[in-house]
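Worked example 3 (structure in, sequence out).
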C-alpha cells in the first residue's frame, strides 16, 4: 500500500526522504538528524524500504509517493506525471525540513528578485591585501554559473584608514573589484564603520582604526557606554557626531571623508554601473541600532539588553532635553531596568504597566530613539552627497525576542521605540524615505513556530516583526531588501524567505527589491547545500524548476550508471 507525502516540491539532491529510489525497490535509511538554520533538529532516523516517484498534484506543486512494491507507477488524481519511472538515484541526499503536508508555492512568473552573496569576512587582510584570489575566482565562477546577480563586500574602516587620519589604503579592494567585474557580477559595498568580531558569525577580528583606539584610550567616552560604565568598542557613540574629538574632526566628518575617498578612488566602477548599491553602516554590525546586546559583555539570547547612553556626550544631550521639557530631574538614565540577561517581567521598567509607559519613561524613550533617528538623518545626508546618483541602503536588525510582550524590551534598549501601543518603525521608514534610502532588513528566514519551540520563554515573533517593518517601509514607498540573520542551508528557511520576498496576498504585488545571502562559506559550496541554494535562486528569479529538476535527474542517472 502506498504512503503518500504530498505535496512536496523536489529538486536536486534534497528529497524529502533522503534519496530517490532506483527503478527497482531499494532500502534507504532516513537521515538520522538534520539541523535547520535555527539550530533545531528536524527529523529522526527510521530506516525502511521504499520506492519514490514524483508527480505534480496541482500546477506548480510536486508530490512524492512511497510504495512498497517495486516498479509500480503512482499518479495522483488530477495530477500531471513528471517522473513515473522513479528511475533517478540521488545519493547523499538530506531531508530538507519541509512539512510534507504543507504545499509549496510555484514561483514561476513571479517578480525577479536579484540575489547577492556576502563574501567572507576575511576576504581582505589587515594589510588591505586580497586573500587567496584563485580560490575566490573559482567560487565566483560557480556563483555566476547559477545566475547569482552579484556579491556584497564590507569595506572596513579599520583596514582602510587603519594607521592615521585620512591616510587611506584601498589596494586590496581594487584587486577584488576587478576580479568581481571580470566575472560579470554586480557589487554591493558596505561602508563598515564598525568593529568585526565578537558577534554571531564573526570568524575574524577587525578593530576600529588604530588611531581611533588611541583617541579612545585617552577619552573613553567616544564609545557607547552602559550604566556600569563598560565601554563598547564596536563603534563610536552617536554623541560625538558633531564633537571635534577625533584629531580635530567630528565623527560625521570622518565618515564623510571616508565615503568621499571611496567614491573618488573607485570612480570607474561607479561610472559603468558595476557598483549597484552602497550600504551605509550606521551602528554595530553596520546596523541602525544601539549596541544593546554585546556578547563580549555577557549578553545571551534572549536577554533584554541594556541602554547604551551613559557616555558623557549622550548624557549631556539627555540633560539638555530634560531641561527643555521643564523637568531637569529627568536628565538621567532609567532605574530598575535589570541587566543584559534579564527578562522584562523581572524589571520595574519593562514589566507590564512598568515605568516604560509612564511620563518619564515615554520622555526617555522618545529621546533615546530620537538620537538614533537623528544619527541616521545626518549620516545619510552626507552619504547622498558622497554617492550622488548611486542607490543607497541602510540595514535594520530584526530584534524579534520579547515582541509578544507589551513593552518589547529588547527593541527598546536597541533604540526602537516600538511597544505594543506605538509603531516604532514608521519614523525610521520616514527618515529613509527623506533620503531615498532603501531598507535592508534581517531575519526574514526565521519562523515564529521554531522560536516558540526552541525558546518559548522569549515570546519571540519574527514573522510579526517582519510584517510590521516591511509594511512600514512599503507604506512610504521605499525599496525593501533583506538578508538572512543566521546561516541557512535548508528548504524550510528558503521557503520562509520566499514567502516574505513575494507575499502571496499583497493586493499591490509588493516584493523585495533584492536579497543578500549570508554568506559565502565552504558549507554553502557543499554539493547538497549548493543544489538547494540553486533552486532557491531560480525561484527568487521567478523561473521554472522543471528544467532544473530534469537536469539533476539526468546527472544522477549518469552517476548511477557510472
Amino acid at each position: 500500500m502506498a504512503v503518500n507525502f504530498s505535496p512536496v516540491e523536489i529538486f536536486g539532491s534534497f528529497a524529502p526522504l533522503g534519496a530517490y529510489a532506483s527503478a527497482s525497490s531499494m532500502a534507504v535509511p532516513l537521515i538520522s538528524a538534520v539541523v535547520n538554520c535555527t539550530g533545531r533538529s528536524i527529523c529522526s532516523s527510521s530506516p525502511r524500504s521504499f520506492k519514490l516517484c514524483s508527480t505534480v498534484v496541482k500546477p506548480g506543486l510536486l508530490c512524492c509517493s512511497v510504495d512498497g512494491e517495486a516498479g509500480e507507477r503512482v499518479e495522483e488524481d488530477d495530477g500531471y506525471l513528471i517522473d513515473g519511472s522513479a528511475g533517478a538515484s540521488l545519493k547523499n541526499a538530506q531531508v530538507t525540513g519541509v512539512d510534507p503536508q504543507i504545499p509549496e508555492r510555484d514561483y514561476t512568473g513571479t517578480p525577479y528578485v536579484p540575489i547577492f552573496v556576502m563574501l567572507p569576512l576575511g576576504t581582505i587582510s589587515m594589510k588591505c591585501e586580497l586573500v587567496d584570489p584563485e580560490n575566490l575566482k573559482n567560487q565566483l565562477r560557480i556563483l555566476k554559473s547559477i545566475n547569482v546577480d552579484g556579491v556584497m563586500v564590507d569595506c572596513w574602516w579599520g583596514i582602510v584608514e587603519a594607521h592615521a587620519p585620512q591616510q587611506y589604503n584601498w589596494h586590496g579592494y581594487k584587486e577584488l573589484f576587478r576580479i568581481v567585474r571580470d566575472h560579470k557580477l554586480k557589487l554591493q559595498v558596505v561602508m563598515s564603520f564598525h568593529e568585526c568580531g565578537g558577534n554571531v558569525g564573526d570568524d575574524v577580528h577587525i578593530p576600529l582604526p588604530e588611531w581611533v583606539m588611541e583617541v579612545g584610550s585617552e577619552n573613553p567616552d567616544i564609545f557607547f557606554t552602559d550604566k556600569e560604565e563598560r565601554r563598547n568598542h564596536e563603534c563610536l557613540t552617536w554623541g560625538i557626531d558633531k564633537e571635534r574629538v577625533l584629531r580635530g574632526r567630528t565623527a560625521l566628518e570622518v565618515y564623510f571623508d571616508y565615503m568621499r575617498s571611496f567614491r573618488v578612488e573607485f570612480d570607474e566602477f561607479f561610472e559603468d554601473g558595476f557598483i549597484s548599491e552602497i550600504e551605509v553602516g550606521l551602528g554595530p554590525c553596520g546596523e541602525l541600532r544601539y549596541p544593546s546586546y554585546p556578547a563580549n559583555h555577557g549578553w545571551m539570547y534572549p536577554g533584554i539588553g541594556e541602554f547604551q547612553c551613559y557616555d558623557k556626550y549622550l548624557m549631556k544631550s539627555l540633560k539638555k532635553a530634560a531641561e527643555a521639557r521643564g523637568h531637569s530631574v529627568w536628565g538621567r538614565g532609567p532605574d530598575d531596568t535589570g541587566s543584559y540577561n534579564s527578562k522584562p517581567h523581572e524589571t520595574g521598567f519593562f514589566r507590564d504597566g512598568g515605568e516604560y509607559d509612564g511620563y518619564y519613561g515615554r520622555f526617555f524613550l522618545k529621546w533615546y530613539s530620537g538620537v538614533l533617528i537623528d544619527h541616521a538623518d545626518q549620516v545619510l545626508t552626507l552619504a547622498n552627497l558622497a554617492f550622488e546618483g548611486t542607490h543607497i541602503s541602510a540595514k535594520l536588525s530584526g530584534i524579534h525576542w520579547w515582541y509578544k510582550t507589551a513593552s518589547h524590551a529588547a527593541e527598546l534598549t536597541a533604540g526602537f521605540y516600538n511597544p505594543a501601543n506605538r509603531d516604532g518603525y514608521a519614523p525610521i521608514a520616514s527618515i529613509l524615505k527623506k533620503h531615498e534610502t532603501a531598507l535592508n532588513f534581517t531575519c526574514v528566514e526565521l519562523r515564529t513556530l521554531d522560536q516558540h519551540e526552541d525558546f518559548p520563554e522569549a515570546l519571540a515573533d519574527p514573522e510579526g516583526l517582519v510584517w510590521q517593518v516591511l509594511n512600514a517601509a512599503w507604506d512610504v514607498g521605499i525599496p525593501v531588501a533583506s538578508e538572512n540573520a543566521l546561516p541557512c542551508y535548508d528548504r524550510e528557511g528558503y521557503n520562509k524567505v520566499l514567502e516574505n520576498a513575494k507575499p502571496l496576498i499583497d493586493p499591490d504585488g509588493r516584493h523585495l527589491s533584492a536579497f543578500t545571502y549570508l554568506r559565502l562559506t565552504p558549507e554553502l559550496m557543499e554539493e547538497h547545500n549548493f543544489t538547494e541554494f540553486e533552486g532557491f535562486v531560480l525561484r527568487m528569479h521567478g523561473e521554472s524548476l522543471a528544467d532544473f529538476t530534469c537536469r539533476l535527474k539526468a546527472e544522477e542517472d549518469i552517476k548511477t550508471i557510472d
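Notes: The first strand starts at residue 3 and ends at 5. The first helix runs from residue 133 to 145.
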